Amino acid sequence: MRRGLALLVLLAAWPAVGADRGMVWKVSGPHGALYLAGSVHLLPGSDPSLPPPYQQAYAASARLVLEVDLAALDPGALQALVAELALLPPERHIHDLLSADGAARFDRGCAARALPCAALVRFEPWSAALTALALEAARAGFASEQGVDFQLAGRALEDGRALLGLETAADQLRALDALPPALQERFLLEVLDQGPELAHDLAALVAAWRRGDLAAVERLALEIGEEPALAEALFARRHARWLPQLEALASDGTATLVVVGAAHLVGEHSLLRSLRARGYRIERVGARR
Fold first, then answer.
1. Under the phi-then-psi rule, with left for phi > 0, alpha for psi from -120 to 50, and beta for the rest, what region is 186?
2. 178 near 117, Cβ under 8 Å?
3. Per-residue pLDDT reduced to its tens digit, 54-64
4. Which of 54, 56, 84, 221 is most solvent-facing, going by the fewest CB within 10 Å?
């Protein structure tokens, strides 16, 4: 699983179909319905457009729900939380948290990628990995500001629509901080080892997302499922908190679009699978008749 952890962060089986179908479903139950869409958290600045099903679901909704309510983020509180969880105390160095081989690979990879090594050594391994990943993605022309979440949040704010979150930024950061040290090290070294291949992999994943092809995400979810601690932290625990919220949103009478990372819609812990098991009807938006 050399690339799986890094690519999962970029997304967080159905066959390939026609272009620009995206990943959007209508979830209907006895007391109401909502739209559930898969997000790619980074999109290229050269083409950040959203497939038509996203436009359709947004137009049909009066409320937008993301993993985290981006409009409610308090920069000061978030900075303090990052300092608490992501930064090492002054007397510690990232080498203290890595194996001997991992520390050597970190030094080589950091230098080879021309990353800010002096800054990264002050981070926990998981946060160093995310920082390196963001820098490499930016070099390849990808940015979170172009991602599905930010685009739709911006539109909701402009339109005066209600904007909610399924969890907080603190929830997400604490889940990553709680990952076992060995997994954090693997995540970091995968990002550093990948290097120039990242742009190709990002482009391939975005292309699959646009086509509505979940096969690549399904394979990724299966790989993550082989790591019980990772699957529990990133999927099972979070989905257990999200599902009651989704059912409440579907039944309160307000048309709602929920957007989560595409990886949450496939695999053993798929939200779609769980909702179907609870009696909801799942219909693909834009499906061919």
1. alpha
2. no
3. 999 999 999 99
4. 84
